[in-house]
UniProtKB/TrEMBL annotation:
<comment type="function">
    <text>One of the proteins that surrounds the polypeptide exit tunnel on the outside of the subunit.</text>
</comment>
<dbReference type="InterPro" id="IPR005825">
    <property type="entry name" value="Ribosomal_uL24_CS"/>
</dbReference>
<dbReference type="InterPro" id="IPR041988">
    <property type="entry name" value="Ribosomal_uL24_KOW"/>
</dbReference>
<keyword id="KW-0687">Ribonucleoprotein</keyword>
<protein>
    <recommendedName>
        <fullName>Large ribosomal subunit protein uL24</fullName>
    </recommendedName>
</protein>
<comment type="subunit">
    <text>Part of the 50S ribosomal subunit.</text>
</comment>
<dbReference type="InterPro" id="IPR014722">
    <property type="entry name" value="Rib_uL2_dom2"/>
</dbReference>
<dbReference type="InterPro" id="IPR008991">
    <property type="entry name" value="Translation_prot_SH3-like_sf"/>
</dbReference>
<keyword id="KW-0699">rRNA-binding</keyword>
<dbReference type="GO" id="GO:1990904">
    <property type="term" value="C:ribonucleoprotein complex"/>
</dbReference>
<dbReference type="Pfam" id="PF17136">
    <property type="entry name" value="ribosomal_L24"/>
</dbReference>
<dbReference type="GO" id="GO:0019843">
    <property type="term" value="F:rRNA binding"/>
</dbReference>
<comment type="function">
    <text>One of two assembly initiator proteins, it binds directly to the 5'-end of the 23S rRNA, where it nucleates assembly of the 50S subunit.</text>
</comment>
<dbReference type="InterPro" id="IPR057264">
    <property type="entry name" value="Ribosomal_uL24_C"/>
</dbReference>
<dbReference type="GO" id="GO:0005840">
    <property type="term" value="C:ribosome"/>
</dbReference>
<dbReference type="GO" id="GO:0003735">
    <property type="term" value="F:structural constituent of ribosome"/>
</dbReference>
<comment type="similarity">
    <text>Belongs to the universal ribosomal protein uL24 family.</text>
</comment>
Length: 106
């Protein structure tokens, strides 16, 4: 089952609204189905085996883990609060807007 999220995109600044990282902000690094990886958030320790052929040193590495998209909202920097995403049609062009202010999301 492949889900396509049109409201949030890679590079968007988001705020986490539930879970252990609640209240923290960051940029979306990658979207995987219905989850997203946010820079420097939801870190987990991963034990890795060394691989000299690939130049990987072994040990305990901190890795960013995915967060469900339902647990994040886009950050409206002009209003300094979280916001919902809406859409506006200009002829054939569809643009994302903030629901509270109506301004276009860049």
């Amino acid at each position: 089952m492949k889900l396509k999220n049109t409201k949030l995109r890679e590079g968007d600044e988001v705020i986490v609204i539930s879970g252990k990282e609640k209240g923290k902000r960051g940029n979306i690094k990658q979207i995987i189905g219905s989850k997203c990886v946010i820079n420097e958030l939801n870190l987990a320790k991963r034990h890795t085996r060394p691989n000299p052929q690939l130049g990987i040193t072994g040990g305990i590495v901190e890795k960013e883990m995915p967060i469900d998209l339902s647990n994040v909202m886009i950050w409206n920097s002009s209003a300094k609060k979280r916001d919902r995403v809406g859409f506006k049609l200009d002829g054939a062009k569809k643009t994302r807007i903030f629901k509270s202010t109506g301004k276009e999301i860049k």
